[in-house]
C-alpha cells in the first residue's frame, strides 16, 4: 500500500497565515476604495450610528530665548468616548455622547487619571448636558466650575445635524483626527507613497505611512494653501515652484518624525469601520525676525482608535433629567 505524501508543517502554516492576511491590493485601488468609503460616511444616510473612540492627544511648545531662558506650554490628555444616534431619519431622533477626560498623573506622565466625565443627550427636542468631576472635588469653587447640569429646548434637529452634534459635544475630536487625517484629503493621499493594503472576505485594511519628506511637504503646503482642496496635479506643480525648493530643506532640518501612520479598515459593505492613528513628531524652527526668541520647538502626538457601526439595532438608555438648569430663554428664546 502506498503511503500518502504529507505536506511539511511549515508549508501548511504559510498557507494558513497567508489566507488570514488577505490578498495584497494596489495603492491605486486602495485609495479608490477609501475615497468611496468616505463618501458613504454621511451619518444622516443611516438609521443608527454607534461610534467609540479612545485616544491620546499631546500638543507641546517650547520657546528658547536668546538669553538662554525657556518658556513651555503643553496640552496633554486622553479621552474615552461613546456616541450613539438612533432613529436618524425620523422625527424621533435621539443622540447620546458620553466621554471621560483623562490627564497625566502628577507622579507619572505615562499614567492617565480621570479628571471629569460628561454626558450629553438629545431627545424629544431637548438637549441635556451633565459634567462632573472625578472624584467629586472638595473645594466648593472647583465644584461650581466643574459640576454642571444644563438643558435647552433646541427643537427638531435634521438628520444632517448628527455629525455636528458628535463634533461639538465631545471636544471636536472628529475635526482633530477621527476620521480626518489621510482619509480626508484627495491631495494628501497622492503624496503618500508607502501604502500597504490587504483584502480579506470581510474587510479591506489600508495603512498609510508618511515619510519625513512627505510630512515636511504637507506642513509647508498646509501653511500656504489648503491641501485638502488640492489635486494631485496641483501638488506636482507646487513641488516645482521655487518657493518649495527654498523652504523644504529648512523644514527637513527642523523635523523629527517618530511615527506617522494611519490605518483605515473598510467592511464588506464598503463602509469605514475602524480608523487608527499613530502620529508623533516634533518641528523646530529658528526665528529670523524676532529679537528675543532664538527658536521654537513644537511637539505633536495623536494616538487613537475609532470604531463605527452603522444600522445596528441599538437603544439609548436616558437618565432621569432632574435638577437641570434650563437655558432655553438664553439660546433658543423662540422655543419658550
Q: How would you characterize the overall build of this protein?
A:
This protein is of the alpha+beta class and 336 residues long. It has one domain (24-331). The chain is 27% helix and 40% strand. The protein has a 13-stranded mixed beta sheet with strand order 1-8-9-10-11-12-2-3-4-5-6-7-13, sandwiched between helices. Strand 5 and strand 6 (126-133) form a beta hairpin. Helix 7 (212-224) packs across helix 9. The longest helix has 14 residues, at 27-40.
Task: Provide the descriptors you would attach to this structure in a database record.
single chain, 336 residues, alpha+beta, 13-stranded mixed beta sheet, 10 helices, disordered N terminus
Overall, the morphology is: globular
Instruction: Order the strands across the largest sheet as they lie in space.
Output: 1-8-9-10-11-12-2-3-4-5-6-7-13
Task: Give the % helix.
Answer: 25-40%
Count of alpha and pi helical runs? 10
Q: Sheet bearing the most strands, described?
A: 13 strands, mixed
How do the SSEs run, as a string of H and E? HEHEEEEEHEHHHEEHHHEEEEH
- Provide the structure class: alpha+beta
Mean pLDDT: 80
User: How many strand units?
Assistant: 13
Please compute the radius of gyration using only Cα atoms: 24 Å
Strand content: 35-45%
Number of domains: 1
Could you tell me how far the N terminus lies from the C terminus, measured between alpha carbons in angstroms?
A: 92 Å
